[in-house]
Amino acid sequence: MKKKILALIPFITALTACSFTSAPKKTTTTNGTEETTTSGIGETTTSTTIGETTTGTLETTTTNPTPTTTNPIVVEDHTVIPTYTSSDITLQAPDFSTRRIPNQDSVKYEDLFNLGNTVSISIDMEDSELEKLQSDLDYYTSTHCKSQLYRHCKSVTITLKNYENTFSWTIEDVGIRQKGNTSRKDEWPIIDESGSLASLNHFKLSFDETFDDAAYGADRIDWSSDAAGYALRKDREFLGLTGLDLKWNKNYDGTHIKEIYAHKLYKACGLISQNAGLSNFTINQVDKSESYDMGVYTIYEPAKKSLIKRNLQDNDIMNFGTWNEEKKGSFGASDSKYGDLYKCKWGIDLTYNNMNGDIGVGSMDGTYTPLYERKTNTSDTTYSDSLLKELGRAVATGNIDKIRTKLDMEYFCATEAVSYFVGNPDDLKNNTNNTMIYMRRSDGMGITIPIDNDRAFGITKDWNVHDGMIDVGPMDTNMAPSGNSVINLYKNTILKSGSASNKLYLAWITALYNSDWLKDSTFEELFNIAKNTYEGTVSSDFDYIGFSLTDSNVSFSNYITAKKNLCKNYLDTNPEDGGDETDGDYGNLYIAGSLNGWSGKDYPFTYLGDGVYTITFTPKNVSGNKIEFKINNGEGWDVIDWTIDLSNNELVMEKSGNCVLTGVTTSSVITITFSTITKQVDIQIL
Length: 686
Description:
Layout: E1 3-4, E2 25-29, E3 32-40, E4 43-50, E5 89-90, H1 109-112, E6 118-125, H2 127-143, E7 151-162, E8 165-178, E9 203-206, H3 227-234, E10 243-247, H4 258-268, E11 276-285, E12 290-300, H5 305-314, H6 323-327, E13 340-344, H7 352-355, E14 359-360, E15 372-374, H8 386-397, H9 400-403, H10 409-422, H11 428-431, E16 435-439, E17 446-450, H12 466-469, H13 488-491, H14 500-513, H15 520-534, H16 556-573, E18 590-593, E19 606-609, E20 612-617, E21 626-632, E22 643-645, E23 650-652, E24 659-662, E25 670-675, E26 681-685
């Protein structure tokens, strides 16, 4: 039985190229004024201004793409944990192509996140609104309450260059506020004492912000005399997006794509995840006539309820039907199109006691933010949140037969397998953080959605957890940052050796292990696209890092090699737990130690197959009739750092002490043979 994960990533296929050399023309549309001008031979620039009186929805009317493959296997009863193996799993193949967009009406929101298109975002702000952003930051640093209030951008201009064509949109009166936790500090102020822009910051843009909440006080907009305008503003979108999140490269990721790649990997497995891309970013202080180049930012679709809709419209999501089927479900609020979506704070464990009294809708001023903050059905203050509470009661029992009736375990196993390779130390398993929970409208079952994966694939800047998580294996039962035991949900499901959920989790681990997604060449393909598009504009008026595959963080190559080796170590010795037994081949291995200055490739092992390595050598340097050594891959110690336990002749495939051989001279002939599968070692000294 082949489990197909179909059409999961909205990558763009190429269309026939069109040239635009006709005379300039001007047309009026319901979304504002559209102007088209020729800007060079074979080049076209098209712009749309969305004025205050024409602030309705701006979105294309093209139909959704038809999946390229058919006949997905659907597990009808999602309370049953499937028993397929890794050979039954097919991930969506990587495809980073960039389609040719014939005209502005054909631009889709996916195009905004395609790294082959050059995206630029420029915002105009008055000094008074920047001062309010600074006041909001001061409020947070003194109270630790994150205000949800937006301030006014006079306008936002978004430009997308696709091959020879350039498309532009200007949206007036857009909401803007800061986002983030550790990034909101006095060391990164919005403005300095002179009122000029002072540093890089993370921001959220809201195209549909109405500024009418009572928390705005004197700044509150009264729409009572403009019901039509209010309706247009409340439903205003850009390419189907109600807003955009923008983050500067605070973690100094030289690749600029690690978090983007993480989102693509989740999507490749049929899981809901944000679209993310890159953009040039500029802030213009209109009162001072000053413009600030903010460099290259990462842009995201917001983690809100529309994320569910867009994923179901454009992808085949595991154990979901279409968007039309989901919104017609009977679970959750009776008058909603969505199930119940919650954004969770740090400290969640998904048990009822953890939830009880800490579920609800947060306040705009940030003085109240529940642990489980509901993002749907926010107007009903008496809503019961019964679906989430039922999930919490099931998780609290520790009984898998109860848990699987409320939490989609197939979805959870796949999610956690991806999260293992992504390696975010600030996720649900490692730090009880950065998670959304969605209770499906179709059947009332829950799924977890990882968000904020900005510490993916070996990021160590400002917070180095286990050398960028390269020491954390797929079956580790401790939280990586603290060393505390993981929450019981993991112990009772995917980390319970031999259980159905454990076997399914390891099947997904193995499928990912063998996929093209975890190959250097695939990552480097996307990196090169991003570099070619944005390398010339990566510098900023403040802080920035250039494009590089190697930086102060762990490289993608070293990170993935280490994580895959940990998987191989476990699966080779525990094939009965699930997944597929690996062949024990770790590539080139070498001895490094006192005999060669702890580096170099002058003592190579020979691989005999079936996990067996051997070496026969005479040591060049011996001190006190002994040598000390370890085993690596000849490229340092980040990926392989093994030793031998002489007390039981066992290969130790993790960081440990040196192996010390005594009774050795520079005339000794030493033969070492070991198996990476059985871990048995044989040493002969002649």
